[in-house]
Amino acid sequence: KQLIINMANQISNLKEQLQQKNNELEHFKKNDQQNNITEETLKEDFETLLQIFHRAKQLS
C-alpha cells in the first residue's frame, strides 16, 4: 500500500514538473514571437529610412 502511495506522489510531482516546463515553454514562445515582431519592425523601419535617404539624395 505504501508503494502505491509513493508512486502516486511521484506521478503527482512529475505532473507538476511537466506543467512547470509547459509554462516555461509558453513563456519562451511568447518572447520568441515578440522578438520576431521586433525584428520585422526593425527591417521595415530600415527600409523606410533607406527610401527617405534615396529621396533626399535625389532632391539634393
Any descriptors?
single chain; 60 residues; mainly alpha; 1 helix; 97% helix
Task: Show the helix and strand layout.
Layout: H1 2-59
- The total count of strands amounts to 0
Strand content: under 5%
Q: Termini distance?
A: 88 Å
Ranges with pLDDT <50 over ≥5 residues? none
Could you give a short account of the major beta sheet? none
- Report the average pLDDT across residues: 92
What oligomeric state do these chains adopt?
single chain
Fraction in helix: over 70%
Shape: rod-shaped
**SSE topology string:** H
> How many whole angstroms does the radius of gyration measure?
26 Å
Coiled coil: 4-35
Keywords: Coiled coil
Short description:
97% of the residues lie in helices and 0% in strands.
Can you put this structure into words, describing what you see?
- Helix content is 97%, strand content 0%.
- The protein has 60 residues and is mainly α.
- It has one domain (1-60).
- The radius of gyration is 26 Å and the shape is rod-shaped.
- The termini are far apart.
- The mean pLDDT is 92.
